[in-house]
């Protein structure tokens, strides 16, 4: 035989094929020594019997075990067995008839679509081995009709296994298409999918491939865990969407063709699964009914681990509603990319948290939460290619920790987000025009749902921009950033700036700009950073210029600002303050100097400025006003000045005698 029986009795007692033994004898044998652990995978090679059986079940006595290692043809008969009979598997098959049990037992590997089993019986153990050929699955490319039959076969088998109290459903070698979804749209996709029951494990191997039959539906799902079915495990296998074979001709975005939906379930685990080419999302986690509805069933205590996600058209993994969800040790590749046959769909992510909620009435009034996401932990994942990790809408904690990234991690309308201790190594696209971390809201600094966010302990290498931030109430600290253009950028893109935030103790090395900022900086502390930049360590421009920003202030203190390292010597580079209002520039150590233009309300105190090629403070073109400079010390090349006014000095600028100019 190519495979051992499901249970191997190790003792002097040996099963004799096609014979009857006492149940009591089996129990004695099992008590002598533990049985070997059953194989995780069973292939059709285990079903190798070809010879017909030379016995009949009509002669079986009660309380016996019959081992089947031959082909038993019932010739259309119904065999009624006496009480307490066990039919055990050893590579054989029973077909073409019916068996009626009286308190009997059967090995699941003897079940098939060619054998009807009725009466009072149970499975030999809690594992159900699904062998495609025995149940009528047609593999390979098939018609819609056959793909629909495939779906009904596997669903019926899963339901049968659950009814027989098998808690593990095992599929090994299979490559088949399944027609899922409802063309009318009246049946929600998860209910038209291959649906898994509660307290159930689906175990698949690397040779298991379940594929979505190509269709033109706007919404569909290959597999689902829903309806309050808790305690489910999906382990292994390959699940394929129909992305590049999908028919997009019907109007609509077709972004809701998912591979797996977890919807309204608790204590569900997805592990070791490979997801590929969804028309929408590879895996979506959501709830049943709206969050504000008293009938709401959340998805919670969800573990998604050791999976691989590839090339899903919209998002590789999305969470729209749920709590206490852990996403760890997965690999994400090219979420939302374009292919030769289909364009990606927004938001084009590898991972996205995007609960839907909106204000009733005016902005900031009553919040109506249709969906809610909280307590999400995204740890130790690997991301390659395109597609960021995004928290669009959520309530914390949302933790991104220990991930290895080639694209970005971002948050927008969220609170309690921590992006910590991740390693970012840019790919070619990120190096050309990409951020490692985008921290904040794109279009407002006053959003009431954005607060308490932190970015710290990350290592960033080779991106166009290390951290792009805006909005409010974010702490950015203890990051190591090596970027091509900007280390930290504030208020760029559509952002309005930054308020009530801090950027502290970061180490920044860039080919151009260290810290860049524009628009609004109100109650922002930029301190303790070590900035090495080949062009400008600071480039701060057009800050607090609107009438309602006249009293806004920010602090630049205790920073080390310098040019690129050349032969263990840092070059002198200017930091730029253009059209800046309300900056406290205190206790910085500067190798280079400052170029100041059109600014006001600058307080520069106790800075140490050393330079071989620049002035200490150079005032240029447009007058700077209402500013004071005191207790600064300078060590400059003799060709340069501590304070150089290229235009007439405004009489509201105070330069104290406490400055120490060489």
Report the portion of residues in β strands.
over 45%
**How far from one another are the termini?**
94 Å
Secondary structure class reads mainly beta
Estimate the helix proportion, in percent: under 10%
Taking all Cα atoms into account, the compactness measure Rg is 34 Å
State the major sheet.
Answer: 40 strands, parallel
Structure description:
- This protein is mainly beta.
- The chain is built from four helices and 59 strands.
- The strands form six sheets. The chain has a 40-stranded parallel beta sheet that branches. Strands 11-14-17-20-23-26-31 form a seven-stranded parallel beta sheet. Strands 1, 2, 4, 5, 7 and 8 form a six-stranded mixed beta sheet that branches.
- The protein starts with 19 loop residues before the first strand and ends in a 7-residue tail after the last strand.
- The N terminus is likely disordered.
Please specify the SSE layout and strand pairing.
Blueprint: E1 20-22, H1 23-32, E2 64-68, E3 71-73, E4 78-83, E5 86-89, E6 93-95, E7 97-106, E8 115-123, E9 127-130, H2 132-135, H3 144-163, E10 168-171, E11 174-178, E12 194-195, E13 200-204, E14 208-212, E15 219-226, E16 232-235, E17 238-240, E18 256-263, E19 266-271, E20 274-276, E21 281-286, E22 300-305, E23 308-310, E24 315-319, E25 322-328, E26 331-333, E27 349-354, E28 357-360, E29 366-369, E30 373-379, E31 382-384, E32 388-401, E33 404-405, E34 409-420, E35 423-425, H4 428-433, E36 435-439, E37 453-456, E38 459-469, E39 471-472, E40 474-477, E41 480-490, E42 497-504, E43 507-510, E44 513-527, E45 530-533, E46 536-543, E47 554-557, E48 560-562, E49 565-566, E50 569-570, E51 573-586, E52 589-597, E53 600-605, E54 608-611, E55 617-619, E56 627-630, E57 633-636, E58 643-645, E59 653-655
């Amino acid at each position: 035989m190519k495979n051992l029986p499901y249970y191997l009795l190790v003792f002097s007692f040996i099963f004799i094929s096609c014979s009857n033994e006492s149940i009591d004898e089996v129990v004695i044998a099992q008590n002598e020594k533990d049985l070997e652990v059953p194989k995780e995978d069973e292939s059709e090679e285990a079903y190798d019997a070809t010879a017909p059986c030379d016995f009949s079940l009509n002669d079986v006595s009660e309380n016996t075990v019959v081992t089947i290692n031959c082909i038993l043809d019932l010739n259309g008969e119904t065999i009624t067995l006496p009480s307490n009979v066990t039919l055990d598997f050893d590579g054989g098959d029973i077909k073409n008839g019916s068996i009626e049990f009286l308190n009997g037992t059967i090995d699941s590997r003897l079940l098939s679509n060619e054998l009807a089993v009725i009466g009072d019986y149970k499975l030999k153990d809690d594992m159900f081995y699904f062998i495609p050929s025995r149940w009528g699955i047609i593999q390979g490319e098939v018609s819609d009709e056959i793909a629909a039959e495939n779906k009904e076969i596997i669903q019926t088998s899963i339901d049968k296994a659950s009814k027989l109290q098998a808690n593990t459903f095992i599929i090994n070698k299979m490559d088949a298409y399944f027609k899922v979804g409802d063309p009318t749209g009246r049946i929600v996709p998860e209910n038209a999918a291959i649906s898994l029951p509660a307290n159930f494990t689906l175990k698949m191997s690397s040779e298991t491939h379940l594929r979505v039959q190509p269709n033109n539906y706007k919404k569909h799902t290959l597999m689902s865990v829903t309806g309050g079915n808790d305690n489910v495990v999906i382990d292994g296998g390959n699940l394929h969407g129909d992305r590049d074979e999908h028919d997009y001709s019907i109007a609509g975005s077709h972004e809701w063709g998912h591979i797996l939906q977890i919807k309204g379930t608790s204590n569900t685990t997805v592990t070791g699964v490979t997801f590929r080419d969804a028309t929408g999302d590879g895996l979506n986690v959501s709830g049943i009914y709206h969050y504000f509805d008293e009938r709401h069933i959340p998805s919670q205590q969800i573990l998604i681990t050791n999976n691989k996600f590839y090339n899903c058209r919209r998002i590789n993994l999305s969470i729209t509603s749920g709590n206490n969800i852990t996403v760890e040790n997965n690999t994400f590749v090219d979420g939302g990319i374009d292919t030769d046959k289909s364009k990606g769909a927004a938001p084009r992510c590898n991972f996205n948290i995007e609960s839907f909620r909106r204000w009733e009435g005016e902005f900031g009034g009553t919040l109506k939460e249709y969906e809610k996401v909280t307590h999400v932990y995204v740890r130790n994942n690997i991301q390659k290619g395109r597609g960021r990790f995004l928290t669009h809408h959520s309530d914390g904690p949302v933790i991104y920790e220990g991930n290895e990234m080639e694209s970005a991690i971002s948050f927008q309308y969220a609170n309690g987000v921590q992006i910590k201790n991740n390693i970012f190594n840019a790919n070619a696209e990120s190096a050309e025009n990409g951020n490692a971390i985008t921290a904040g809201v794109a279009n407002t600094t006053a959003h009431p749902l954005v607060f308490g966010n932190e970015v710290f302990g990350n290592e960033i290498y080779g991106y166009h921009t290390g951290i792009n931030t805006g909005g409010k109430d974010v702490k950015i600290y203890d990051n190591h950033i090596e970027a091509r253009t900007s280390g930290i950028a504030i208020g760029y893109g559509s952002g309005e700036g930054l308020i009530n935030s801090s950027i502290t103790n970061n180490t920044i090395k860039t080919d151009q700009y260290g810290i860049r900022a524009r628009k609004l900086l109100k109650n922002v502390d930029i301190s303790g950073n070590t900035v090495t930049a080949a062009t400008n360590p600071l480039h701060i421009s057009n800050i607090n210029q609107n009438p309602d920003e006249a009293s806004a202030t920010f602090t630049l203190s205790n920073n080390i600002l310098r040019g690129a390292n050349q032969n263990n010597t840092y070059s002198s580079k200017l930091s730029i303050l253009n059209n800046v209002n309300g900056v406290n520039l205190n206790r910085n150590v500067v190798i280079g100097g400052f170029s100041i233009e059109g600014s006001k309300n600058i307080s520069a105190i106790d800075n140490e400025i050393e330079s071989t090629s620049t002035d200490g403070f150079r005032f240029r073109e447009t007058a700077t006003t209402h500013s004071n400079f005191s207790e600064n010390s300078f060590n400059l090349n003799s060709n340069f000045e501590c304070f150089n006014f290229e235009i007439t000095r405004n009489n509201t600028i105070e330069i104290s005698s406490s400055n120490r100019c060489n």
